[in-house]
Amino acid sequence: MKGKRGLILGVANNRSIAWGIAKACHAQGAELAFTYQGDALERRVRPLAAEVGGHVVGHCDVTDPATMDAVFAETEKLFGKIDFVLHAIAFSDKDELTGRYVDTTEGNFTKSLLISCYSFTAIAQRAEKLMVDGGSLLTLTYYGAEKWMPHYNVMGVAKAALEASVRYLAADLGPKNIRVNAISAGPIKTLAASGIGDFRYILKWNEYNSPLRRTVTIDEVGDAGMYFMSDLSRGVTGEIHHVDAGYHVVG
Ligand code: 0WD
User: EC top class, in one word (predicted)?
Assistant: First the structure.
């Protein structure tokens, strides 16, 4: 990936899936820019960015379009054009990631869909302008988009919409040689995952039942992410690629 430059959104700490993908891209020679969400995460993201010789282009909260504009302006100043963008962002009120989907409130539904789904389209709009020689957009999804999963609730609905948007974005941006894909990762203990009810049970369930009889790591998702960001996947777009130790064939 020497000579390729990309923007990484969604690093919260060194357990983040985005960090696994960033490390894998860096190992193959890519140059990276990172955003962070708020001051608390800035303190975590800056040292991680430094670890991979990367840049920090500022605070980005996808509910605030001005911050998205600002980080893309900063990225343009830094890189000129870009080759890839990673979107590894999701949110739901923790209180609604337990119990029944039917109890989802309108407020949390709207916010969850805005942050976990629409933001990928909002990012794609801005990325398109900087991907003058084509590029790759990647997001993260979960099997709860395809099948009912305990406690995943509104996130499952948001991920289903996100997966559909991958297909629509792929069709829209394909003529510009901009590819759009998603990795459907198996459960991994991260900050975001700790908000999901009974998460430890879900990890155990996957260990017992997935074909590989284990869960996956951020480095395994990272290597697959690197494939999508690089020219190795140049013929692939609109794809939902499972990195889940095979759980989707049995679940
Ligand atoms: O088991 C898992 N961990 C899986 C995660 C399995 C399959 C998919 N995923 C997805 C998540 O749904 C998400 O889309 O992977 C993506 C990355 O999640 P992660 O690596 O599990 O979690 P984490 O390290 O917490 O990073 C997600 C980050 C946020 O962290 P916190 O925990 O503070 O919410 O998304 C960012 C934030 O940095 N984020 C936002 N960024 C900008 N604007 C916003 C926002 N409004 N909200 C959350």
Answer: oxidoreductase
